[in-house]
């Protein structure tokens, strides 16, 4: 069960409201790199967690933290929208600076939300929940979570560079820090479970007789005019320690020509197809 | 530039066509765990790749392989739809077996595609390209790719269990194998770049003075009635070797109460809010 | 800031797991009538609340409750999926009962989530955040909230009728009760603000000289072959007490024929349009 | 059956075409607050209307009016796009005013529609029909309709403030008026059916033994650090006249810890979860 | 301006209600081949029509007809849902026939709409307005319309084969007929404008010096292991009468290797990319 | 099976990087008129092709070419983003030119992709695969393909007018040329199959006794105040040579008033509806 206390997790101040930056900040709320995504992803993973209960607790505790991140980011968006123009004035229509600001802001921040945050990204596209990755496989889910936090910290770092506002920089520096921890926390779960080599391949429960092992360790070079790039992936022991990497150059197709023959009567095709 | 040869990458046979399994297979084509996603994700990452050109080649070569996976899966769906009923007959209407088959199949496999594959998932929801993760940060992207392949192999393993068809099992065993390789290949890129500890935190180019380092290494326990779960994430050196994990129990909010005050005139609020 | 305690808000038991009912329950999680929607709607309204701080607190408190509803519904879905078939067996393939169950279940409950809840509706369509209605106008928002709870209670009542499971009926009877309270709570805010007649028209802050008042109180009967339906809406004082309802029969258009003339050169039209 | 006459419902003129305002106006066509939504919502409610035929007629008549609103708004968008630049000129590339205009306009108004209206919102996001709320319950539907008209009038009022164009102000004043009527018309249906107290709870046909009535009338205060806000919702008779409002402070969870145990073999989980 | 008369455009009867067929019929309402799409497509094309006013009238008249098609199809869905089970009974739970019917029906036809039509397709996916194609180019639009009607008649023909109900067959035979006319009507507009050869290439207003004409008439054979297929497209005069078709075999790329070099500082990339 | 060679199909140069033009170019990648759409549409049509194998080869060869178009357009976007600002500087914040550029660019080109192409349109809306039209009917599919290429060439022509960059104009002139060929190539398939009159109506395999032929050849004039527009569509032989066009003026509805009666008990309606 969830509870709420009335203060924000972290102090948010905005020295100079900036409607354009409000638009950019939306990516951290409703973007695929944003906080709604991680809050919901960890929440659904927690609800489906099977096995070690510590992982469920980790997931739920961090889902709860991410909800608090949505909250202070939402406040930051509203503060950046303070003072944004809500009526058009004659002088503004001719002022390129004002026009530029209006042009670069999200008009729905006024039209739809009345100067507050929305669950959309920096293009105004609403977040959709298909981005909540929760497979029931703890290895796949921990990688998904580390990925989400990597994207989140990339985003927060870019946002940091795009503002001069002291308050905004301070808030973003907090997010940059928490995303560092969260990246590590999910990868630490993999460590706790024996490390990457024990976890791979994901799922590690698939019986080997379900797998065409002769195809499990080569890099397929589908490039016609280049040698395969050489590196850790092209030779030496595989990361799971059970095979040896190799390269398959200029592969010939192994399958058939996929002809489906004629269309069936009554299937809605043209007569010429039958 | 892309090229095509007329044979499939891998032989596809279906011993007993099964429209219900055709519906399930769609998840491997148009699901978030499916082949359209990885093909497009690696393709867009390749187009935006900066730095070591080997990585761009790896990405493009594997994008190309994934396109070939879409192709043979699409053929598998069409073969499973061979013989599916296209007209209703009086006896069928009363036959629970036929009804069950029709009920469990995707009706759009007849209505919309005329007995062939569609770019949709097992619920008939079209794939949307917001799932193409390509950040321009090679660390974030490699984790995203390993995640995608983990989800893909989980899916292929589940599909393998849901069919008795020899041909389908053979095809899925090939996918299970390739997904093993692809998981490792992307993680091997991280190894090549110095390993996880060198890559973390992602992005590793963010200056430390952009980060509130005092918040970078603690697990925040937002659970009111439980101790924080203990593990690799709660104590000991951080994975990036630059800090020490700790736990922050029962946190007090650090921020303010986020009151926005009154609504502005002309902002479309109710009079009572002003 | 949010917090979490480890127990569910309400006890959830399932006497007989039913994968088909798990699919139906998803509507209460990820449908437009579901709990993700209300949790997020109240949360975003709270973050944008201006004026009376009591309303912000009401919104945030109830957002927090709805998060707890997601949590126990998610558990209910997982319990209903216990024992669902994860492999196909020869006898099952021929058993119409098993086939019917599989046909009526959501295959992604196995394929994608590994037997747990997803943020999707009963058709497997993911929730998208465009359904979070938060206008910054408290009158519009309270109506939106009462609407959401009305839809929610309609849904819960229908679900109640579709299960014989004692545990599920008990859980749904709790939701039916909470939705009763929530409907009333949002409408009570309107009462607190002076009642409907004081709130209408929404927004009540729009100056009357922004409105073509001669068009404000008639029902427009666009039906060619019927008299306008008579009722509270067709005569008598308006609900806001500032006008008198009437009917405008068989209206003539007041506007012009909307001809746009020729297409401009270089606008990508056909030559014949220019 | 529908019919059409060639003139617009209302005269539309634009004194000074403004591509930026064309973009804003799109919200009134293809936004969730817009005319496509209400036209389709009332149309689908009418098609599913059961009970009093007057309501079906009301719904269909107003659906028909809203189609006419789409039509004149579509014309308004096209008129605002008259004269928008379709080729780039050297001087424009350096002129910040022109650049600002181009930056603030929707480029798809040229690229995709050739200077005419599209079924998208002010961010260019297409309208999707999941926003058509039609439950088959007349109480829920009337609230949904009043909500839609409230959002619509908020939007029209904001748009009115964002233009100086006499023609556009005139057109918007007409929409502001019609939305006033439509808000009242749907609420008047509830009056006709006995008023809010008779309608609540929605659905009012759910038997009370389907409801855990002990949970039907308290406000749940999930806020840890604040008293529940006091008001019409916290004490006194409930709006449906069948109960008494109260507050439940600092609730303890009533449910269990939701542990799912181990993952099943063959379910695609990691070995460590089994 | 639109008007409505109370009778359906065409008589709709259902001899034996069939909830599964109700689900299939939804494709004709809310599918990409359905009536909402054509109604809205012709409506938006009409609103943006420039040039010959007859075309605008054709578009608006047919948009209006398609609205009437939605209306009678919506009624057909509701009639097919008459008598669908709304409560579960003990015997039904064990009856495979009933289960098959429930499994094959759309549960949201009860849960969300209360036994009436929804603006969704046969998979329950809501229609989204991005499918409204209206380019402002009459040639492109007429092809798009003929395409939509072709898809519509394919769908209606398939639906016809999937029902034994006399009433449903009669209604579908009407749609099959109207779609024949509509296909021809849009292609007849192209005839009226001089025929295909005059219309091609679309847009026919693009100056030839904007086009790399040396690439305008060859079929590019990207197949590595096959000769190009021979036909009307590979030799002989082009359809626009301005060129000669040819085949370009085994093409060499004409472009460069697309290397982007290093990532920029402060761009959020990994250090190794810089 | 697919293969790749390392050079682009066509040389791409950008003389002066322009982040605003990068945003516009996205329409040609991820718009409904763009290259992802045609690549995937032809690919899925090829996978489902039944009948003449030459058509399957045509489809697959051209799908492959379109993938190469995505590739060089993706490079063009990245080149236009070279030099775009990644940090804010004090002078920039006050410079209207810089602000205008930032306002008119897509912020996600930095925030999400790190200065490279994304699978989105010019509004930042991701491409969704519901736009892949592949019906299994070759007539419907060829029209859909000609439509897609018509939209594509309209778009490329408009983009050509919106840039002064020599390199971009050259690249677009290549696309304008290829789209000319592709339009003709798909229409040439219809010629090869006997021409339009033999193909119509689509599907031409529907038995005439499935069609209410008395409704197959009239234009329905639903306009109340205008004669039907006269033209090739209103009189003379039909395009399929099997009928004669006519006009049906001021039609009376042929159907019934669609009343559904009362709502059923337990269906979630209000008591007043029962």
TrEMBL record, chains A, B, C, D, E, F:
It comes from the Bacteria. Mn(2+) 2 binds at residue 66. InterPro entries: Ferritin-like, Ferritin-like_SF, Mn_catalase, Mn_catalase_dom. Mn(2+) 1 binds at residues 35, 69, 149, 182. Ca(2+) binds at residues 57, 221. Residues 229-274 are annotated as: Disordered. Keywords: Calcium, Manganese, Metal-binding. Belongs to the manganese catalase family. The keyword Metal-binding applies. GO terms for molecular function: metal ion binding. Binds 1 Ca(2+) ion per subunit. Pfam families: Mn_catalase. This is Catalase. The lineage of its organism: Bacteria, Pseudomonadati, Pseudomonadota, Alphaproteobacteria, Hyphomicrobiales. Its cofactor is Ca(2+); Mn(2+).
